[in-house]
## 1
Amino acid sequence: MEKTQQVPPLMALFKKYYSSFRSVEPERIVSREFGYIPFTGSMVRHVAFQSHADLRRFLSTTVPRHVYYSTAYYRKPEERNMQDKEWMGAELIFDLDADHIEGVTELTYEQTLDIVKSHARRLIEKFLLREMGMEPAELRVFFSGGRGYHVHVVSEKVYSLDSDMRREISNYIRAEGLSIQEIRKNATSVRYNGSGWVGELDSRISEFYSEIASGGIMDHLLERAGLNPEKYVSKLRSRFINKRPRLDILKTPGQEKYKIMDSDDEKLWQVLLSDLSISERVEIDSPVTTDTHRLIRLPGSLHGKTGLMVKEIAIDHLSEFDPLVEAIPNSFLDGTVRIASENSFQISMNGEHFSVTEGECDVPTYLGVYASASRKSQIIFTIS
């Protein structure tokens, strides 16, 4: 008699989830390419579905570890050659992940998620809504299920953008290639309206010189710029331009300061610009934004390295959103599993803090799924 192959416990729990999958379903499904990574094997692409029912049936029978869909729309999404797919347009996608943010390697998973969320909020509030003029209804925000967030711009305004146009947007958001000379060029333009990076730097420059004019000591910034504080401040106070004190011109918001900028000012302003870009830029995965054929995680699917959902979030709920509570599937909230761990680890999930030690122990199903998916432990068997 042929022996039946046993389904691994983690895959069995994923199957349980997908057997009742009723989450966010992509619009224009017949125009999307799908891809997936099975529990055993490599990436499979160029899959197409004719209905949401077909997609749900596929997920419950195939039980993939990771599931993706195209941000682009095609006439023939199942074709293997990209040109044969007949591209019709693509959403504008921003992928925010901890991999692109400095200084997170020593942080906990929870702390990392908070930092990436702050970048996602800045992307939405500062760049997409305020500077690019997008409407909230044109944005869809998702927790990636892993260590970050995905922001989709779903609008006719962006579908036809080519890779170069998307790269310009990405570079602007990341402050890529930003320089004092470029700022000066834009600031002295007749179209300058005090917005964007130019406006923000202008405010910081004006604040800096206003502080000096009021007797403030700014030696630390001047020294970082390689300037002698005493000599530089003395020059500011002694020079007049067209009968106006130089310091008054530099502390006044607007274009005039850029017309009298000298080499010392440039050094200082580069320091201010560097500080500004570090504090205000958004770290996004640029290739994701520029790629007009990109696959991204399917909303509602499970992340194969955490067992958490790719969860849609209302924009006005993003600041309060807790992925380690709200992205846990309901089907994992009940029951207990036994896990075996080679190393100890700690994590807070579902409002409870867990300290898992080496060896075997019984934990809630959702913690067992996370520990197994992230390869911190192995699920031995399901208890209840």
## 2
Amino acid sequence: MPRVFITGLGFITSIGNDAATVTRNLRELRHGFEVFPPFQKPEIPVKVIGTIKDFTTDSTDPEDWTFPAAYKIKRELLRTMAPNGLFAHCAMLQAVADAKLTEPDISNPETGLYAASAGSPYLLHYHNDRLNKLGVMRCSPLGIVASIAGTLNFNLIAAFKIQGSSCGFSSACASSAHALGFALDDLKLGRQKRMFVVGAEDGNVDAILPFAGMRTLSLQTDPNLASRPFDAGRDGFVGTGGGVAMVLETEEEVLRRGVKPYAEVLGWGQASDGWNVAISHPEGSGSAAAMTLALKASGVAPENVDYVNAHATSTLIGDVSEARALRSVFKDAAKRPAVSSTKALTGHGLSLAGAMESAFCALAIRDGFIPGNAHLVKVDPECEGLNLPRTTENTAPNIVIKNSSGFGGANVALVFKRVA
């Protein structure tokens, strides 16, 4: 089967809006958390999120939004977007430039796009409320495509004139990891030569606050303590939004265009817990199965993995479940790979997480480092036995696994390799 490589990346994230800034903050373990003004009410127990800087998208009218002047987006495109669509569009423009793609490279039957987002609860609520209060004829005819779960792929496919495979994925926090896995399959099976994989979320009150009702968000008021994966003092995750775009291409296209890839995508695996609608299996059985399948598909032995970018969100149950899964897959304690969760820096991007953290893995592979575990002071006894570096290691990982998990016990593992 064809080999597949990552050739372009684009970032709008809480830790930076370009690859250079993101790389620096990953290396230096600088987080993107701030006290969020809309949450500073007595009735809201959550106070901190991972904020997106230099973008203002709190109006229901996209013409009121502000974003960096470097991005030129036509009015007719903006008016059908949710905030996550704006973040993703800007990330796509970066990825296209990074991969050195031309318009014919982008718009042809052999280039596709898979995307993941939860839609825009913010705009969906606004448009439904307007319909109920003012009547059908006072509703925007573009309200549906700007707000429902497929809004991200609708907008990107139209704006970038995508002609190949296209689909939106919805498996909660595993969504964009699923998108990447199925994009890899399309490329290896010869269905496409190039795939964009995009994840994005609004990252505003309506997207994040409902998770407080599930008792899954951190109640810390200090941004430096709010996200602490694997730490005994963790009390929940920190929400965030943004957008990340990746370009995947076959070896034939890489050679034809003469571009230098970030990393090779070797394989992937997925498995389900069959356990609970919202809680990971206590033994991490689904996550372990996904990693085992991914390693088998990639032809990699567990002892050859150098780094695992964990899903670990900083929740009490989820981190322990993943720790048990990791110990069961990497049985030899002396040969266990370094493990860290970059959600300690960014927060949890929900359906964006898989793509965002896969892109972080690509940066780490290319630039030769392994991000440490920020804010980890005292390891939860249930997470002991893992190789959890506290500081960034200036070592180039050769083989990297990215884990993702979502509601219903959906688990995905992706395997990446350094390009010699």
## 3
Amino acid sequence: MIFRFVLIFLFISFNAYSTDCEKPKMPTEYEWSSWLSTIKKEALDKGISQNTILKHLNTIKPQSKIIMRDRCQPASTMTLDEYLFYTITKDKIFAGKNFLKKHNDILKEIGEYFKIQPRFIVAVLGMESYYGRNQGKINSILAITTLAFDRRRSDFYKKQLFAALEILDKNLVPNGELKGSWGGAVGMTQMIPTTFLETAYDWDGDGIDIWNSYADALASTANYLTSLDKNPWSNNSTWGREILPPKNISSSFFDSIKQINPKGCGAVKRRSIPKTLSEWSRLGFTKINGDPLPIRDDLEARLIMPDGIDGRMFIVYPNYKNILYYNCSSYYAVSVGLLSDKISN
């Protein structure tokens, strides 16, 4: 999965700060240099060149503001509708439509190669960086090294640090300087370094560049969405749709919705056991406009309720799970799906 630290947490008016939010006690110079010496040795053992290690780690200092950003992420109290109000705006839909039109040829080629509908690639880019416009300007090594030292997620960020050093060591960044979000995500795709090394794709043949090359950014997104083990993307179905439950259905039916924690996805999701789309239709679930659901016995579907039984309900197909792995949030995955629908209409 791709680790993300963006978007909705910026809207403080709908959130309460984390109870773990406290000013961090910064290390002494000895503590920092001692820890950094160990990191340098580990990086060298992993094959990172001495030159890269010295260039990027020798003068680096931990940043309290980075630790504060990580510890003080607001605890969201938003509803799905409030989240969608901020993430699927008229200007983002308009820009997405124009993006689809402007890059139609390359999107068609990438879509056919990876067997994925272009609108989903564009929707992810829209959610992650507003189609490449908002990529972040923080020095990634500075941010990641600070978070690797901090106790909260040290193991995770040590992996990201070594991956980021490898990216620089292999000269995979066009200008030699790795920049992105405060949490270490980079490029139009906002990939974390380990994911970059695993799935970043050089579509135009002149080196991977997810910062400046739309072709590479789009292909990298498509490669990630379609390369998940045991869950191939299906370009013969969509992500899902909003639905209405039958009026006479018992509330006990919804008690069967289980808490499922997908492998590699930290957030627990409320999803039902799978049924065919035809089975959901026979139970009386309909499209949001009241029309019957399509009759398909070959398509697995699950019921999700991001805000619980009193909130909006969706039937989601296997492709939804792939989007969920890009960012482990049901709000995010639904937003990508809805945005993809709107920019393609």
## 4
Amino acid sequence: MLCNPFSPLAAPFVRRVWLGAFTLFLSVPALAQTAPDAPSEEEFAACLAKIESKAVEAGVSSDTAKSVLADARYVERVIELDRRQPEFTTTFADYLNRRVNDDRVTRGRELLETHSDLLARVTRETGVPAPYLVSFWGLETNFGSYFGKMAVPSSLATLACDPRRSDYFTGELISALHIVDEGAISAERMEGSWAGAMGHVQFMPSVFLRYAVDADNDGRRDLWNSLDDAMMSAGKFLEDLGWDSEYRWGREVSLPDGFDYSLADGRRLPLSEWRELGLTDAFGRPLANDDIKAALVVPAGHEGPAFLAYKNFNVIMGWNRSEFYAIAVGHLADRIAGAGTLQQPPPEDTPNLARDDIQALQRKLTEAGYDTGEPDGIMGPATRAAIRNYQQDHDMIADGYPGADLFQALEITLASASG
């Protein structure tokens, strides 16, 4: 089970890999791009022929490469999904409330009990506590209820023959061929997401090859039909990413009046220093006077909840590079382990921001002397830093968050407000 919810410490565990720099960013979509014209049948066939040669050179059997790629089809829907990004960014409240709700918590607790022996085994072998394993499972496939219905070889072939990320998806397709070649699953039954993620825990083929294990000893690494294999594989992946069972993911905290939000810039300070700065746990109790380092995260700005994130938060982001996702995994794990809801829920009236809104903000900040880099509509570290610097210079709360007051100060009309 999780450690005491008011302590960052859990049972002793030998430390593994530390991931390095603590990168935090707002969870926003990438730029939408115009989909290119579909390749002709001849062009697609030529692309697959090149991939077949590369696959054989990489050790895939000629029979597997030829037969699987012969059945691969170009799927325009895959390109649409790859290019289509939501017009508006998802607020933290919307993201969290959709993913961490009472139904999912109840189901997670039931499955924690049902699979207690398996989960205990995974924890013993990898150090990853059971509630986290169940949390990942819940967020990835709603506890195995939906794996995706796309034919993975065709999805990956489509993306491999598209110029945007051809090299990456060519590698993933070749990895998928290796999986078929080893007999883990037939090409016909290899279904998953439009981007090729597969099974209970939605591994990409390259991750499958490196981390999937045959935990039930049936001779196959089967992440679709064997929960034993899926949970142990997830544990091995997190272990290799650097999971440290001395720590939880993070915790909700309470900030004092007049707090300097510019400290929520990704810096990692000892818990004792956060304590000296007036932070308490979410219930107002003093933090431990300890040298454990943590970063302050305020995903909805100064009006929302605040979290101190330990190193396992960064491990979770190694699975999915989204701050929102990492908080959702950690909070759902806490809830499954018996904790309650957040003491400071995120505000639900925060406006959604269109990509055009962020681009307009970036241009205005740069014009005012706060360089954001290329105005790409993405809330990356440079834009967050520019916002924070502008806020500091204009007597605003320097939380680095693009709130309505910032847009008003810069005289920007939100696209959502202008129709």
